[in-house]
């Protein structure tokens, strides 16, 4: 499953989960933040998905523990 690399910016309305189609990740797409921490986090899919679990755009620091 390929992802859409172009994810529109926030338009003021909370988006439905399928609003952006397939993003570049099967778990989290994180945008415009200085830092994000994933601590004791497990991401699984019901079906095989070749996309990475995490995709970022404009993120300063990502910590995975």
Tell me what the structure shows.
- The protein has strands at residues 28-38, 54-64.
- It has 65 residues and is mostly beta strands.
- It has a two-stranded parallel ribbon.
SSE blueprint:
Elements (H helix, E strand, L loop, with lengths): L27 E11 L15 E11 L1
Features:
about 0% helix; two-stranded parallel ribbon; mainly beta; about 60 residues; globular
Global structural class: mainly beta
Counted up, domains total 1
Shape: globular
Query: The biggest beta sheet, please?
Result: 2 strands, parallel
| Mean pLDDT over all positions | 84
Uncertain regions: pLDDT < 50 for 5+ in a row?
none
Spell out the helices and strands N to C. Answer: EE
Rg for CA atoms: 12 Å
Percentage of residues in helical conformation: under 10%
Strand order, largest beta sheet: 1-2
> What's the end-to-end separation, in Å?
27 Å
**Number of DSSP-assigned strands:** 2
Give the strand content. 25-35%
Helix count, DSSP H or I runs of 4 or more residues: 0
In short, what is this structure?
The protein has 65 residues and is mainly beta.
